[in-house]
Design goal:
Layout (H helix, E strand, L loop, with lengths): L2 H16 L2 H14 L7 E4 L17 H18 L10 E4 L2 E2 L12 E2 L9 E2 L18 E2 L1 H15 L5 E4 L12 H8 L1 H10 L1 H24 L35 E4 L9 H16 L4 E4 L9 H7 L3 E6 L5 H8 L4 E4 L4 H4 L4 H17 L3 E6 L11 H15 L5
Parallel strand pairs: 1-12, 2-7, 8-9, 9-10, 10-11, 11-12
Antiparallel strand pairs: 3-6, 4-5
Length: about 400
């Protein structure tokens, strides 16, 4: 098999999808939805047990081509699911960002993993006492230009005549590395972090203050260097709106006020709203208030934290409502002023699709959305398995679309 031409054929199909009328229709839908213009509820499949899908298994033997193959195959399979995802007609090469030699914060953040695949792990906190604080290294925004250019040129040589190839030069300290909470759990452990809030608050403040300043400084450096562009945005859905420029392959630098971004604090799910604000949100705010629009929350229950979040983050637009959140309370609190990103439980598809339960839960969510004038979308995420029943996710999309057609969400 000619592996290079095989990968090019996949890229051609993705480019056709990305430039299709259907993608433009979806771009307009998400733009209205994220700008609080009433649309039908939109569906986003964020995970679909990719490891169990035979057609996603790479066949290329060349390692570099294998990576490209897997990327394009994922897009093509995701497109077949029939949700409202947008697939862009360009390819992003990740810049070779330089981080401290010992690790993101100057030292390793080890964990103990089980022998079984996909099992839970145990944190091994590297920071235990005051003396350990000396291990921290202040991060900076730097890029290995030679390595970045080499990767860019290699990808461009393969698919550059098919679709635009761009370099993602955004800093390392974004997304999970930028929310402070994720790395803090590795640094202190979940239990240690929560005990610190009671037993050693000054010690914890020193840690999160250093991390918060580090994230803010790195992102400021990246913006000053012109390393944020219109494709440097993510909101755990589709980053389109009417207020901000649309994502595109334009490499012109922009400041963060033109971008959507995402932040969360899953590790403080069981922490009181007041402690979450004191130890996490206060240190996220200097960085994430600079963006045009903010999406907040991933798997954590934000039911009792929304009042603080709404007060402290004026750029808040999208919020996560998880399976263990109080959906009615969240719906009432959010009203028509925010996008309610509802995340139904993935258990509905994990052991075989449960159509009756999915439709029942969706109808209930839509009735609440109508009562409280919510702008609601549905994100199916964390589907770690479909137990070999490969049509489960497609059937989920089909069932939700049938409920959407009933019009229960209209207000």
């Amino acid at each position: 098999m000619d592996e290079r031409n095989y990968v090019r054929s996949l890229a051609e199909r993705v480019y056709e999808i990305g430039t299709s009328d259907e993608m433009n229709r979806r771009r307009n839908l998400w733009s209205d939805h994220n700008s609080l213009i009433l649309t039908q509820p939109l569906i986003y499949i964020r995970a679909f047990a990719a490891g169990e899908i035979p057609e996603l298994h790479p066949i290329c033997t060349d390692g570099f081509l294998r990576g490209l193959e897997y990327h394009f195959k994922n897009i093509l399979y995701n497109y077949s699911l029939g949700d409202d995802s947008i697939f862009e007609p360009w390819y992003e090469v990740r810049a070779a960002v330089i981080t401290p030699a010992g690790g993101l914060w100057g030292f390793p953040m080890p964990v103990t993993r089980p022998d079984t695949a996909r099992g839970s792990f145990i944190y091994n906190p590297p920071i235990v006492n005051e003396e350990d604080l000396e291990k921290f290294v202040k991060p900076t925004h730097r890029i290995n230009e030679a390595a970045t250019a080499e990767a860019f040129e290699r990808v461009s040589e393969i698919i550059g005549d098919i679709m635009p190839v761009v370099v993602d030069r955004s800093p390392a300290y974004t997304y999970w590395n930028g929310d402070i909470s994720t790395n803090l759990a590795y640094i202190r452990g979940l239990e240690g972090m929560m005990w610190d809030m009671i037993d050693r608050p000054e010690f914890l403040h020193k840690i999160v203050s250093f991390m918060g300043e580090g994230v803010a400084d790195v992102q400021n450096e990246a913006e000053a260097a012109g390393d944020f562009t219109l494709y440097s945005q993510h909101n755990q859905a589709m980053s389109y709106s009417r207020e901000l420029p649309w994502p595109c392959a334009d490499t012109t630098p922009v400041d963060r006020s033109k971008l959507q971004t995402f932040c969360a604090s899953q590790e403080t799910a069981t922490v009181s709203p007041e402690m979450w604000e004191e130890f996490i949100l206060n240190y996220q705010k200097p960085t994430y208030s600079k963006y045009g629009l903010l999406s907040y929350g991933c798997c954590e229950d934000m039911t009792h934290k929304f009042p603080i979040l709404k007060r402290e983050m004026p750029n808040l637009r999208r919020v996560a409502v998880t399976p263990w959140a109080n959906l009615r309370s969240c719906s009432e609190q959010l009203g028509s002023d925010y996008v309610l990103s509802w995340r139904p439980s993935p258990t509905n598809v994990a052991a075989g699709f449960d159509e009756e339960l999915t439709k029942k839960q969706t109808r209930e969510a839509f009735r609440l959305a109508r009562e409280n004038k919510n702008h609601i979308d549905i994100t199916l995420k964390d589907v770690e398995t479909v137990s070999g029943k490969l049509d489960s996710v497609k059937n989920f999309v089909k069932a939700v679309r049938e409920v959407i057609a009933e019009g229960e969400w209209l207000w």
